[in-house]
Write a sequence for this structure.
């Protein structure tokens, strides 16, 4: 733990870990943002506790971050971390007023997600060839991302008891411990069966074992799941072979899943549920992609469209 971290911040981080069940990646972001905010507050007014400062301190903090050249999206994330902390302090009666309510979030220019074309998606799934342990694992990672639209944190957390082979579904624990069911197509299901057979041969097919176990046991003698960074590097390696778009990532396969579903007539509400979005506004970004596609079709096909 950071030795200079305020106890309130430590308690808040413990709260989002044990009560809200946030992912380790999200918790690290909160740690970074709030430690930075607290450090600023100590310099801003050493005579007062940070929780006793008013919104001027937060506004000055955002101005300092802005002067460092951080994007509006990054500023919004820092502010969201601070806002969450103050909501927590209000609930715990540590402050009388939530001063962050009057601080406006910087406007973020909506950036359309990067995704693969249907041909690129088909090509990337064909690259890992063979039925050895490595090829099966890497092909399954790619196929599950594209077939289900799950997040990287959700993929690595799948345990064998979450999989219902006969029904072709996987039980997923998403953001905020929200549960949902995702469907697995026949191609991905075949790869899944072969992968589990190898796990069984290696003695790693118990119901509580992870679908993608770590290569080595931890210090506690137990085998956890594969690291997010490992999955990221695997997917990135294959994406580079089918596209020159440097911004493509494992999350792009989630975008690809949603975009291809929408292009083939899927209902937006159904896509929302399959992606595990809490509100429709998060899913509606894909309608912008649809509009761009329609605009290109119009410009190419209509005599006065050019």
């Amino acid at each position: 733990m950071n030795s200079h971290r305020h106890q309130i911040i430590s308690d808040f981080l413990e709260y989002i870990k044990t009560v809200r069940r946030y992912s380790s990646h999200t918790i690290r972001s909160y740690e970074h943002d709030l430690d930075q905010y607290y450090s600023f507050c100590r310099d801003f007014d050493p005579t007062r506790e940070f929780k006793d400062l008013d919104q001027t301190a937060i506004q000055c903090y955002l101005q300092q971050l802005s002067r460092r050249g951080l994007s509006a999206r990054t500023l919004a994330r820092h502010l969201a971390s601070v806002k969450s902390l103050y909501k927590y302090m209000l609930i715990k009666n540590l402050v009388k007023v939530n001063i962050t309510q009057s601080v406006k979030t910087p406007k973020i220019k909506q950036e359309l997600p990067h995704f693969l074309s249907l041909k690129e998606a088909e090509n990337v799934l064909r690259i890992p060839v063979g039925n050895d342990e490595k090829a099966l694992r890497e092909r399954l990672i790619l196929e599950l991302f594209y077939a289900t639209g799950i997040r990287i944190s959700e993929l690595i957390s799948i345990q064998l008891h979450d999989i219902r082979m006969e029904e072709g579904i996987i039980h997923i624990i998403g953001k905020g411990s929200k549960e949902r069911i995702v469907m697995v197509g026949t191609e991905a299901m075949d790869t899944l069966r072969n992968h589990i057979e190898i796990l069984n041969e290696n003695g790693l097919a118990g119901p509580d074992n992870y679908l993608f176990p770590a290569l080595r046991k931890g210090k506690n003698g137990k085998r956890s799941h594969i690291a997010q960074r490992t999955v990221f590097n695997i997917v990135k390696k294959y994406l580079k072979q089918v596209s020159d778009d440097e911004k493509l990532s494992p999350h792009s396969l989630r975008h690809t899943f949603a975009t291809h579903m929408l292009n083939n007539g899927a209902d937006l509400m159904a896509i929302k549920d399959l992606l595990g979005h809490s509100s429709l506004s998060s899913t509606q970004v894909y309608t912008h992609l649809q509009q761009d596609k329609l605009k290109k079709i119009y410009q190419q096909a209509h005599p006065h469209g050019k």
Remarks:
- The radius of gyration is 23 Å.
